[in-house]
Design brief:
3 helices; rod-shaped; mainly alpha; 84% helix; 0% strand; 121 residues
Length: 121
């Protein structure tokens, strides 16, 4: 999940950069090729709408960032708790000289799925 969050953040940054470039290109095209467009929507209005979209986009990114940070922190806490629990179980097994029967295939599969899921978070 952390990898996905990083990808989303990079996508936001790229989109922001792309919007800046598009706005620059539109301004340039309007000034050089269409100084007097009759009967069409005002290019300045289009640029203002583009700026409004960019502002909304930046707001969304700002709202997304704390959520991504909290997800990373939650993942770290879950992993730490899981590792601590596993260590405690192993210590209890050593202290009680308890020999467990070998794990069933179902138990092995469940552990692999849990580890895989935690690594995806």
């Amino acid at each position: 999940m952390e990898e996905e969050v990083d990808k989303l953040e990079l996508m936001f940054q790229k989109a922001d950069s792309d919007l800046d470039y598009i706005q620059y290109r539109l301004e340039y095209e309007i000034k050089t090729n269409h100084p007097d467009s009759a009967g069409e929507k005002n290019p300045v209005t289009l640029l203002q709408e583009l700026s409004a979209i960019k502002t909304r986009y930046q707001t969304l990114h700002a709202r997304f960032k704390p959520i991504a940070d909290e997800q990373k922190e939650t993942k770290n806490r879950i992993c730490a708790t899981f590792n601590k629990t596993m260590t405690m179980i192993q210590e209890l097994q050593k202290q009680t000289d308890l020999e467990l029967s070998p794990m069933t295939e179902e138990e092995k599969t469940a552990i692999q799925q849990l580890k895989s899921h935690l690594s995806d978070l």
